[in-house]
Amino acid sequence: MATSSTTVTITGAGGQIGYALLFRIAAGDMLGPDRPVRLRLLEIPQGMRAAEGAALELQDCAFPLLHDVEVTDNARTAFEGCSIGMLVGARPRGPGMERADLLAANAGIFGPQGEAIGAGAASDVRIVVVGNPANTNALLAATAAGDVPADRFTALTRLDHNRAVGQLTEALDVRPDEIDGVAIWGNHSATQFPDVSHATVRGVPVVDALTERLGDKERAMAWLDDSFIPRVAKRGAEIIDVRGSSSVASAANAAIEHVRDEQAGTAWTSAAVVSQGEYGVPEGLVCSFPVSSDGSGYRVVEGLDLDDRSRARFEASVSELVAERDAVRELGIL
User: Fold this and answer.
1) CATH of the domain at 146
2) Could you tell me which residues are beta bridge partners of residue 70?
3) Positive/negative CA dihedral, 174, 180, 184, 188
4) 333 assigned to some structural domain
5) Which class for 296: exposed (0-12), middle (13-18), buried (19 or more C-beta within 10 A)?
6) What is the pLDDT of residues 103-160, one digit of tens each?
7) Does the residue 1 lie in any domain?
8) Which of 137, 254, 256, 285 could form a disulfide with 158 if both were Cys (CB 3.0 to 4.6 A apart)?
């Protein structure tokens, strides 16, 4: 008996991140080698030709797992029967653009998409928001999605998680798979808190490994505060400065890993999920935490100790999320 296919909807599919996603999903990198997919590519009218060209290339690859591709500029069509939604397209912040203007512009994108998800998505739908400001855009979509449970909506902080691991591999001269327990707390922004206080490398606490490598604990903590944390938080800006454009392949890779681990299960990673009040975060905010999954969605890893230093950084990022939520409310959107 043929295995039924999973409908995956990608918004902004004609853009660079969308392009980087499509072929890996069709090849089975996200859902595995035994799970066929149907791709729905949603674009604005100006982006339709690029998405249509990508669809032609997908056909030319003759992926065995790819059962169908449809390109559309209609959100209701794109999300009909959708089980996995990857909301990549968003309005970027332009020169001189105020935050309220950015939030209002994205509400005009993610509100209607949320409505379309509520109207026609599959009963098992799960959504990851990639387009920035990702946390608040996920809140906008979830609010507009009617009866779809809010916990089906997540935002991408796996890219920040991977960046943190990457910095540690360089500092400690180890492989990424030798590091466990890194966490990203708060907003996907420069206020985020990349946390290594629960992380280990080859079974040794990361702080201890850094202390041994740098000579003393004071130098290790200084490196974390003055180099590691700001570099992870501002890595996107660094890439724009060096590359001349924003992160593409690394963002697509992180989105694929986010969905893969949510679907297949993982003991620990980072993702922005709807708060139920964990760690004192106001209920309803889409906030990044360390999370686990048994294959039925991400759950916050609870019971971790946060010292005063960690708590202060985390609360500063949560305050930014509250400010974004309140700014949207003032616009009459939420």
Assistant:
1) 3.40.50.720
2) 40
3) positive
4) no
5) exposed
6) 889 999 999 999 999 999 999 999 999 999 999 999 999 999 999 999 999 999 999 9
7) no
8) 254
332: in domain: no
Amino acid (one-letter) located at 27: A
Start-to-end CA span in the chain (Å): 46
Place of tokens 């590519």: 41
Question: Domain check: are 202 and 250 in the same one?
Answer: yes
Determine contact, residues 6/84, Cβ cutoff 8 Å. yes
Q: Are residues 188 and 112 in the same domain?
A: no
For the purposes of burial, counting CB atoms within 10 Å of the CB of 292, is it exposed (0-12), middle (13-18) or buried (19 or more)? middle
Q: How confident is the model at residue 72 (pLDDT cuts 50, 70, 90)?
A: very high
Whole-number Å distance between alpha carbons of 121 and 107: 20
Find the mean pLDDT for residues 244-259.
96
Of the residues 67, 161, 188, 198, which is catalytic? 188
Q: Which residue reads 């992870």 in tokens? A: 232
Q: Which two tokens stand for residue 59?
A: 């056909």
Which of 79, 68, 70, 58 has its CA nearest to residue 36? Answer: 68
Instruction: Establish whether 188 is a catalytic residue.
Output: yes
| CA 179 from centre of chain | 20
Q: Quick one: tokens of 306?
A: 């946060």
The tokens 């991400």 sit on which residue? 298
* Domain extent for 66: 6-155
Q: Which residue, 56, 58, 57, 76, is CA-closest to 66?
A: 58
Q: Are residues 166 and 229 in the same domain?
A: yes
Give the list of residues 6+ apart from residue 328 with CB closer than 8 angstroms, or none. 103, 107, 136, 139, 140, 334
Residue 334 lies in a domain: no
Instruction: For residue 129, give the nearest of 99, 148, 157 by alpha carbon.
Output: 157
What is the reported pTM? 0.96
